[in-house]
Amino acid sequence: MTIDVRPKTDRGFFAEIYGANLKDCSDADFAIIKDAHLSHGVIAIRDQDLTPAQQISFSKRFGPLSIHVLEEQLLAGHPEILLVTNKKENGRFLGIPDLGRKWHTDQSYEERPALGSLLYALEVPEDGSGDTWFADMTAAYEALPAEERRRLDEFEAEHRYDHKHKNFELSDNQIDRLPGVLHPLVRTHPETGRKALYLGVQLVKRIVGLAADESDRLLADLHTHCTKPEFVYCHKWRKGDLVFWDNRCTMHAAQPYDDTRFTRHMHRTTVIGDQPC
Ligand code: SIN
After folding, report:
1. CA distance 113 to 273
2. Is 235 marked active-site?
3. Which is the CATH superfamily of the domain at 4-272?
4. What are 103-137's pLDDT values in tens digits?
5. Which residue's alpha carbon is nearest to atom 5 within ligand 1?
């Protein structure tokens, strides 16, 4: 079966991929998938049936994997997998039930944030809720007037885990590992060479060098701009989807669902990226 890549928007942002077998992915098929990821920013590889070890092994072909700071939400025996789930055992959530509900890019609070994240759907809500929205940060940047782009190119922003990211209280040790970091507000993609806004409501605290009210206003304006419908694609999950997004040029936000009636159970692997520049 040949791999079929189907872009989902006129601009080519987001593509669905059919006919891939990630358990046993040849170098030729891998090259098609890698190219689709770079060209479309986010890919949803449909109809997979992966064990944790198979997901880890496929993910590692893109680079070394990170181990998330929330150690208690990792899959036992496979610490490369972060559990994004509302399943419970003995009255306690097995993983994070409401991860990433505000716009963000993964692990931007680290020196070397995530290149990309691969989220594999084992169970999805039966009523079709629990979508994930993705924003095309390259298109959002390129749509700004040239003068505004030149101004933004000069700024840095502070990213902090604890800005609006209240899923779990961190221990003192975890806090010490995440003091916050400065990244450029506009980053150049190391593989495509294209510039993109590097933002996130959840994790970006301030723009360096601006007064607090000016920084808040500019961040709010930029987030409003990037999340206009023309830059956003909504992915509707199916069981067996492996969605791989490029954190260097996209933001995402998970949408709520009725977690008292439905189960949404996913495994996330995360590929370590470069220091943004
Ligand atoms: C995440 O931000 O990694 C989770 C996204 C989702 O659950 O849809």
Report:
1. 6
2. no
3. Clavaminate synthase-like (3.60.130.10)
4. 999 999 999 999 999 999 999 999 999 999 999 99
5. 254
